[in-house]
Design goal:
It contains three helices and three strands. By secondary structure, the chain is of the alpha+beta class.
Length: about 140
């Protein structure tokens, strides 16, 4: 089935209408704000300085029907939540040595962490309450 206005299925419109925040973002704020930038995932960030405080900045996700807010990079997260006033397009942030690339959370998928004893993890759980420390092998 082909796409109509960028949507794969007619039911995508129902999902957008049911999600009030997404509806407001697309139909009320999307066209009126100034495009500040785009991240590596394709999400677009907007700002409108004529509106009230704390409603000036928002994101329009690349995939409107299957979006995940955990995929927002840290530098854009700081700008969206007013932690800093510098958008990553206007300021070069120094990355900490320990920083890793931000990605979408795996919670709720088969790739999520499953401890021993979880029904989806094939490893058997050791019911021993105490394990002696073993030094690493050299």
């Amino acid at each position: 089935m082909g796409e109509v206005a960028g949507f794969r299925k007619p039911l995508d419109w129902l999902k957008i209408a049911a999600d009030g925040n997404l509806f407001v973002t697309i139909f009320e704020k999307g066209p009126t704000g100034n495009l500040i930038g785009e991240d590596l995932h394709g999400n677009k960030y907007y700002e409108d300085n004529t509106t009230t405080y704390n409603r000036k900045r928002w994101v329009v996700y690349k995939d409107l029907t299957d979006y995940n807010p955990s995929g927002i990079p840290p530098e854009w997260h700081g700008w969206l939540n007013y932690i800093n006033d510098f958008a990553p397009t206007q300021h070069d942030f120094k990355r900490p040595v320990y920083a890793i690339d931000a990605g979408v959370t795996k919670t709720g998928t088969l790739a999520a962490y499953q401890p021993k004893g979880a029904w989806i993890n094939p490893e058997k759980r050791s019911w021993v309450k105490y394990e002696a420390w073993q030094p690493p092998k050299a």
